[in-house]
Amino acid sequence: MIHLIVGNTGAGKTTYAHKLREENQGIVFSIDKWNNRLFMLDKTKDSGLEWMLERIDRSETLIEHYILQLEHNGIDSILDLGFSKYTHREKFRLFALKNTIDYKLHYLDISIDLRKDRVIKRNTEKGMTYEFEVKLEDLDFMETWFEKPNQTELKKAVHIKL
């Protein structure tokens, strides 16, 4: 089973993914952790969105490789990859279908006010889910970047609304 954890910045995707891991003994793939460990030290002031998206794509190629191994062993893959765009979610839905793996979308539909408070708290406390500081202008950008799941995507999804 592949779990796609979807939500805008500050929705609580990583916290939710770890809770789901405790419930089903799956493996969490958190793109923030991968990015922080593999790429952030190489980032320069000129490294833009395309630079990061290319690195995310490379990481996801490896993640797909590991998903197949985990599925073979009967272990769920919990993808905390943001899934801000429909095309990104569709990529993993088609990957699951191609490899005859069940999948479930989990949509954390959280208000901007609550997400903003969470981002400020995470930046200040630097707790378990902290990987790097999220600036408020990044949160604002994500309001225009994020595409909410459509009705077809939500048909069999877990939809948490706060």
Describe it for me?
The protein has 162 residues and is an alpha/beta fold. It has a single domain, classed as Rossmann fold. Helix content is 52%, strand content 15%. It is globular and about 40 Å long. The two termini are 26 Å apart.
Task: Count the domains.
Answer: 1
pLDDT < 50 stretches: none
CATH homology-level superfamily: P-loop containing nucleotide triphosphate hydrolases
CATH topology: Rossmann fold
Q: What is the terminal separation in angstroms?
A: 26 Å
What is the percentage of strand-forming residues? 15-25%
Please outline the major beta sheet.
Answer: 5 strands, parallel
Mean pLDDT: 93
Q: Structural class of the secondary elements?
A: alpha/beta
Q: What is the N-to-C succession of helices and strands?
A: EHEHHEHEHHHE
Bulk shape: globular
Q: Give me the count of strands.
A: 5
* CATH hierarchy class name: Alpha Beta
Q: Strands, helices and their partners?
A:
Layout: E1 2-7, H1 13-24, E2 27-30, H2 31-38, H3 49-72, E3 77-80, H4 86-98, E4 103-109, H5 112-125, H6 136-145, H7 151-154, E5 158-161
Parallel strand pairs: 1-3, 1-4, 2-3, 4-5
